[in-house]
Sequence to fold (151 residues):
Amino acid sequence: MNELIVNADGTVTCVGDAGSVSGILAKRVKAATIPATHDVDGVELTPEIVPDADTLAQEVDAETLKTHAWRLPRVREDRLLQLRIMRNAKLDKMDDEIKDNLIERPGANRTVANSAVEKQTLRDLPDVMGPALDAMTNTDDMDAYLPSELI
Fold:
């Protein structure tokens, strides 16, 4: 079975055959340790600072990962980016339809005038999506979230 580690930045490491969770955590602690400093006589000026492994990464199961406090902000940020890309594509498509209709079919349904409200709604969408995602406490809910304006 693949063990999961959630990192402090919200990313996930799947251990699998890469080693053991304890071995990976030990390597991370060693890499993050700030060595002691000494003067020319070898007298310690500042002690070694060894971080607590739990501040760097934590082993989790798949269910806990969905609600882990370190994971939620990362998934929220990623989902918001995906939704913005979808929104931008929809705005670009509307602009193309308007341009095509103005050139090829004057008086067609998609015009600048009748698209203004819809385009403004799409432009305002990040102000709605951010708080909606903030209110979610599960990554499954964030992944499933899709405002009706983007359907």
Notes: The first strand starts at residue 4 and ends at 7. The two ends are 37 Å apart (CA to CA). The mean pLDDT is 91.
